[in-house]
Amino acid sequence: MPVVHVVVLAGGVGGARFLSGLRAAVGANDRITAIVNTGDDLTLHGLRICPDLDTVMYTLGGGIDSERGWGRIGETWTVMAELAAYDAEPDWFSLGDRDLATHLIRTRMLDAGFSLSAVTAALCTRWQPGIILLPMSNQRVETHVVVDTGDGVRAIHFQEWWVRHRAELPAREFVQVGVSDAQPAAGVLEALTGADVLLLAPSNPVVSIDTILGVPGLRDAVHNCPAPVVGLSPIVGGAPVRGMADKCLPAVGVPTSAEGVARHYGARHDGGVLDGWLVHSDDTADVPGVRVNAVPLLMTDPAATAAMATAALTLAEECRRSA
Ligand code: GDP
Ligand code: CA
Asked: Could you tell me if the CB of 12 is within 6 A of ligand 1?
């Protein structure tokens, strides 16, 4: 059997769960590369934190708290309590004791001049995720959200909007601060040109997938890649399965529906990125030029998630044959 190289664009929790299903679904010799959103990254208490990369790394490495979907299993919160005793700001972002070790090592390596790609690879020697994990970019590209606070319009870091305000301040716009100076990280363009299949995980379309595609050169590389491109809908029955993607889509004028998201990504022959789109069993999507299949898309357990991944690979094969 030839080795198949599957490349996935992924955010945090939705991306990580999907990748674990995909890892179970592919053949033993096949290769998976995940290109992960870093627009959620932030610096807190002097430490560099990459929530989506860590969620993927911990999930695939068996270290995730699977109830919460993020952070370490068996976590304790002593340092956070001590910071609170000093009234240290910001106090709205949870930092667990175990998790802190990851951020300490990452920050030390970045300060010593290593790239985020190199740091991620180093952290993965412990976690052995079984896939190649790449940040979308080694430059800082941080998503900010333009909100109306009541006292005026201002831009706040995505995490402040998402975690502190629970996405309750209506978003007017998402801005990728630093993006014009960013480049795809080492290995990203090579993965896209060498892919046999390219999948868009059922991740947040606005603040995960669009953020990745916003890195200069990346959208073109996806548009032009030789492999079929198949996306999985994060919207089921008109709502996100978990999280608050419905708070993001209106800001970019996209209806919260499987069809709305697919039209937003666009058909490849129309300048977009999709050849195929998977929607949940009872959903429909009419997107000219995009082949649509409907299968169960709820990642309720490893078998269901692996079946979703298999359906995505099957749809990719159908797209390839009909091309
Ligand atoms: P985040 O970075 O942690 O927000 O994670 P992602 O961007 O990777 O994924 C968030 C998206 O995953 C949300 O929009 C959810 O709707 C979607 N999602 C989570 N669980 C499921 C699931 O079981 N099925 C589908 N289809 N989507 C899911
Ligand atoms: Ca995220």
From this structure: yes
With contact defined as beta carbons under 8 Å apart, do 231 and 276 qualify? yes
Superfamily (CATH H level) for 5-139+180-322: CofD-like domains (3.40.50.10680)
Instruction: Give, as one character, the DSSP assignment of residue 158.
Output: H
Mean pLDDT, residues 104-126 = 98
Tokens of 161: 């909007």
Q: What is the CA radius of gyration of the chain?
A: 19
Mutational pocket test of ligand 1: of 37, 68, 158, 241, the residue with most ligand atoms within 8 Å of the beta carbon? 241
pLDDT in tens, 1-32: 789 999 999 999 999 999 999 999 999 999 99
- Ligand number with the minimum distance to the CA of 234: 1
Q: Is the CB of 208 under 6 A from ligand 1?
A: yes
Nearest partner of 55 among 37, 73, 69, judged by Cα: 69
Domain boundaries, the chain: 5-139+180-322, 142-178
User: What is the model's pLDDT at position 81?
Assistant: 97
Per-residue confidence (pLDDT) for residue 296, from 0 to 100: 98
Residue 136 Cα to chain centre, angstroms: 10
In angstroms, rounded to a whole number, what is the distance separating the alpha carbons of residues 136 and 152? 33
At 150 the pLDDT is 83
